[in-house]
Amino acid sequence: MKKILLKYLTKYTTLDPKEQQAILDELQVRSYPKAAVLLRQGDVPDKCYFVLRGCVRQYSVDSMGKETTSRFYTEEQAATVFHSGSSNAASPYSLVCLEDCNLVVGELAAENGMLRKYSQLETLIRKMVEQSMGEAQEEWSSFIASTPEERYKAVLRNRPELIDRVPQHQLASYLGMTPESLSRIKKRVGGAFASPEQQP
């Protein structure tokens, strides 16, 4: 699985093979079972994650108890809660594994030490953060300008694996609609776009 990380090290750094291997040896790859909670809303994040295998859901619960799914992280995506302010700020989101997952786990407290040891890692991390933030911004821009059906079709074009990998009520929340509306849209779109509905 670390071959995936080697691809990014080769793409974004000029580290030699010995340095690349040293970094890979220091990285922690952990397995988490389905439903494992990586971060609870209100806790201060102390880890960041990179998905090698599996799916991680990001969601929040408001004061009325309404749960809203805001992102799904799948293979080769960084699952990290970003803050514009203090690094000690409480997370507005929870992160939970929707499937059995293999994740690279980064301890935020140890990050500076790694960066001092391997300065080019800063470039790698910046590129990965830029990619993640760019994807999130693009998703949000498309979301607010689209109808519910257009949002569903965008998922089919850009992330079709989500249709079969996540429960329908969570996908509906992510798309800003009710499960009933999503069911109607799936039936209306039909054909090659249709997929069996998953139960919550």
UniProtKB/TrEMBL annotation:
<dbReference type="InterPro" id="IPR014710">
    <property type="entry name" value="RmlC-like_jellyroll"/>
</dbReference>
<dbReference type="InterPro" id="IPR018490">
    <property type="entry name" value="cNMP-bd_dom_sf"/>
</dbReference>
<feature type="domain" description="Cyclic nucleotide-binding">
    <location>
        <begin position="11"/>
        <end position="57"/>
    </location>
</feature>
<protein>
    <submittedName>
        <fullName>Crp/Fnr family transcriptional regulator</fullName>
    </submittedName>
</protein>
<dbReference type="Pfam" id="PF00027">
    <property type="entry name" value="cNMP_binding"/>
</dbReference>
<dbReference type="InterPro" id="IPR000595">
    <property type="entry name" value="cNMP-bd_dom"/>
</dbReference>
<keyword id="KW-0010">Activator</keyword>
